[in-house]
């Protein structure tokens, strides 16, 4: 997955405080610069670097361009940097319902008139 590869903000040349507009603008600029149709063809070594850069930019934008996926990525990055364990509360385990006892017990319902 792209998150395992490194810092997605660095792939776009931005910081984590970048706005969605700055992310979009950096993505378009880098794609235009590294796309095979717009770069020089006489440098084969440079084209391999540009291909890798282009793949990194596209995968970074696929995460950072979507606000929901970006929030999840930011949360994952900050939680791994903090290295603070997260305590997760789980619901208590219920015993299996026996054949003579229903799985759900409900008490009486009292209706109050609204006067």
Present the secondary structure layout.
Blueprint: H1 8-12, H2 20-34, H3 44-64, H4 67-82
Helix pairs in contact: 2-3
- Per DSSP, the total helix count is 4
Structural class: mainly alpha
What is the name of the CATH architecture? Orthogonal Bundle
What order do the helices and strands follow?
Answer: HHHH
CATH superfamily: DnaJ domain
The tally of strands reads: 0
Q: Main sheet, how many strands, which sense, barrel?
A: none
CATH class type: Mainly Alpha
Residue-averaged pLDDT: 80
Shape: elongated
Strand content: under 5%
- The N- and C-terminal alpha carbons lie at a distance of 61 Å
Taking Cα atoms only, what radius of gyration do you get, to the nearest Å? 26 Å
Spans where pLDDT lies below 50 across 5 or more residues:
none
CATH fold-level topology: Helix Hairpins
Query: In total, how many domains does the architecture comprise?
Result: 1
Give the % helix: 40-55%
Assembly context of the chains: single chain
What does this structure look like?
By secondary structure, the chain is mainly α. The chain has a single domain, classed as Helix Hairpins. 50% of the residues lie in helices and 0% in strands. It is built from four helices and no strands. Helix 2 (20-34) packs antiparallel against helix 3 (44-64). The mean pLDDT is 80.
């Amino acid at each position: 997955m792209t998150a395992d590869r490194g810092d997605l903000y660095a792939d776009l040349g931005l910081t984590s405080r970048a706005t969605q507009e700055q992310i979009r603008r950096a993505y378009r600029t880098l794609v235009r610069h590294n796309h095979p149709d717009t770069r020089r063809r006489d440098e084969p070594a440079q084209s391999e670097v540009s291909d890798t850069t282009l793949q990194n930019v596209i995968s970074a934008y696929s995460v950072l361009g979507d606000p929901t996926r970006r929030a999840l990525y930011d949360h994952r990055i900050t939680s791994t940097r903090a290295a603070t364990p997260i305590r997760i509360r789980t619901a208590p385990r219920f015993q299996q319902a026996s054949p003579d006892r229903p799985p759900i017990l409900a008490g009486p319902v009292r209706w109050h008139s609204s006067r």
